[in-house]
Amino acid sequence: MATQDFTTTLLVDQTPEEVFNAIVNPRGWWSEEIEGSTENLNDEFIYHYQDVHYAKIKVTEVVPGKKMVWHVLNNYFKFTKDNREWTDTKIIFEISKKDNKTHLRFTHLGLVPQYECFDICNEAWTNYIRNSLYKLITTGKGEPNPREGKGFNAQIVEKWQLQ
Fold this sequence. Notes:
Layout: E1 6-12, H1 16-23, E2 35-36, E3 44-49, E4 53-63, E5 67-77, E6 90-98, E7 101-109, H2 118-139, H3 154-162
Antiparallel strand pairs: 1-7, 2-3, 3-4, 4-5, 5-6, 6-7
C-alpha cells in the first residue's frame, strides 16, 4: 500500500551541499518569524504564522549533504478542531544525486489526508518547497513569510503551551 504522508520532490543543478545549506536556513524559504537555532542536532525552534499556526520543532537527525529530520514536539492550529494535528509528526528532507542533478525528497511523515489541515498544509508545503526553497537553492533568494515585527502573541502562545 502506498504511503499517504505528504511528499514532494525537487531536482536541481546545485550540489547536495548547497541544497542542504538552503534547507537548514528555513528563515530563507519558510518564515522569517522562526525563533531559535535550526542547523544542529538537538536544536529547537519555533515557527509561527500570525496567531494561526505555532509549532515547536526539534532537529533530530543531521547528515550534511544527505538528510535533515525535524520532529514536531508541539503544534497549535487556530483553524482545526484538533488544533494539535502536527504534534509528534516528522518533517524529513532526503538529498541524493540523480544523474548530474541533486534530488530532494521532502516528506511530512504523519501529515495524512485524514487530517483536517491536510489540503491547506499540502498547498502550503508545496509552495514552500517547490517554489520558495527551490528559488533559495537556485537563485539564493527564497520567498518566506515576512517578519511581522510584532513578535509572539503572548496570549496565543500561553494557550497553545497549556493544551
